[in-house]
Every structure is written in structure tokens, then in C-alpha cells.
Design brief:
55% of the residues lie in helices and 19% in strands. It has 216 residues and is of the alpha+beta class. Strands 1-2-3-4-5 form a five-stranded antiparallel sheet. Helix 1 packs across helix 5, helix 4 packs across helix 6 and helix 6 packs across helix 7.
Length: 216
């Protein structure tokens, strides 16, 4: 599956910056507060000297993934990304697909946020409609600005992200189109196989990277 480097870069910059670089959010409600809480937690881990040691890389990644999973509803993202195909699959097939998709998303996310530097993010507004909300943000690096919208849903008593829209392009829609092409050309089994292989490759690469860092 092709990589959307600029799309992911904008998404991930918008998802890590916090602290004193944030714009005013006095008007913000629970959805914005939820996004900011997770951002602050991620930044805290990234800026903690104890977690910057090479030998801590694998452990830090696991902690970051746990933090991200608390805010991102990966199961819902999987369901929406698969579209109508989701209801055709057995519970076991859904579980297998969602697990691999979560590994792909989380690991791609982590690979980018570990290299963040200095961009500023502003929380612009939020729109709440019952159990759904859109949190509007803008990322500015001093030269260009990127609009990012976090689409959220109240789930299990908390606001969780089920999609992210960067400059009008949605993450879920992006993947849905890729998945649809693969299923149409090959099969759902082939899509699941590709996701599983990519997820396994990602999982295997993290400890290797940590070992490499220790050997330098």
C-alpha cells in the first residue's frame, strides 16, 4: 500500500504538540480537553530524559502506544475504513483485521511523533452534535499552516477519535479507498494478509532498532 508522507506528517505533527506552544482554549469543552489531555501525555513521555535513553526505545514505544490507544478508537477506525465489507466478515475476521490495522496505524504514528520539533498548534473551535464532535486545530511551523480536524465519538464514557481530517483529506477515507481497491483486485483475505505481514514486520523492526541503538 502506498505511503502518504505529507498527509501523515501533517496528521502526526498535529497530534503531539502541547504545553506552552498551545493557543488559548478557554472556550474549549470536553472533546477538546480530551484531545489536549492525550497530547500532553504524549509530549510528557517524549520530553522525559529518562525515556530518551536508547535502551528505553522499545519500552517507550509501548507506553506511547498505550497512551494513543486510550484516545484513538482503533476498532471504530477499522470498521469505518473497511466500510460495507466489515459486516460481511465474521467476528474473528474483524478481530484479526482490527489488530493488524491498529499495529499499522499506531506504529506509523509513533515513527513520526518521535521526531517532532517546534511546530505550534492552536485549538480553534469544537462542534458537538450529541455523541459526536469535531475538534478543529491549526498547525503552524512559521512558514505554512495546516488545518486538522479530529472527529470524535463518545464511547464508554469518554471522547475518542475515530477519524482525522487533514486539509480536507480524511484518514479513514484514505484507507477505505486503498482497501477497496485491494479487495476488488484480489480479495479480503489478501488485504488481511498484507496488513498482517506489514504489522509483523513493524513489530519485528522495533526491537531491532533498539538493539542497533545500543550497539552504537
Amino acid at each position: 500500500m502506498p505511503r502518504y508522507k505529507h498527509f501523515w506528517a501533517a496528521l502526526l505533527i498535529g497530534s503531539v504538540l502541547g504545553g506552552g506552544m498551545l493557543g488559548a482554549t478557554a472556550w474549549a469543552g470536553p472533546p477538546t480537553d480530551a484531545v489536549k489531555k492525550s497530547i500532553d501525555e504524549v509530549v510528557g513521555i517524549l520530553e522525559d530524559p529518562a525515556w530518551k535513553k536508547p535502551e528505553k526505545k522499545e519500552e517507550r514505544r509501548k507506553l506511547l502506544e498505550q497512551t494513543i490507544a486510550q484516545r484513538f478508537n482503533f476498532l471504530e477506525m477499522s470498521r469505518r475504513a473497511l466500510g460495507a465489507e466489515w459486516n460481511k466478515r465474521t467476528p474473528e475476521e474483524q478481530k484479526d483485521f482490527a489488530a493488524s490495522f491498529q499495529t499499522l496505524l499506531a506504529s506509523t504514528y509513533l515513527g513520526k511523533i518521535e521526531n517532532y520539533s517546534g511546530e505550534k498548534v492552536q485549538y480553534l473551535k469544537e462542534i458537538v452534535d450529541g455523541e459526536y464532535a469535531d475538534v478543529y486545530t491549526k498547525i503552524d511551523n512559521g512558514k505554512t499552516a495546516v488545518d486538522i480536524v479530529y472527529k470524535m465519538e463518545m464511547a464508554s464514557g469518554d471522547w475518542r477519535v475515530y477519524d482525522v481530517v487533514v486539509e480536507g483529506t480524511g484518514l479513514v477515507q484514505n484507507y477505505r479507498e486503498q482497501f477497496r481497491r485491494i479487495i476488488r483486485k484480489d480479495s479480503f483475505a489478501e488485504l488481511t494478509k498484507q496488513l498482517r505481514e506489514k504489522a509483523e514486520h513493524i513489530k519485528a523492526a522495533v526491537p531491532a532498532d533498539a538493539d542497533s541503538a545500543r550497539s552504537r
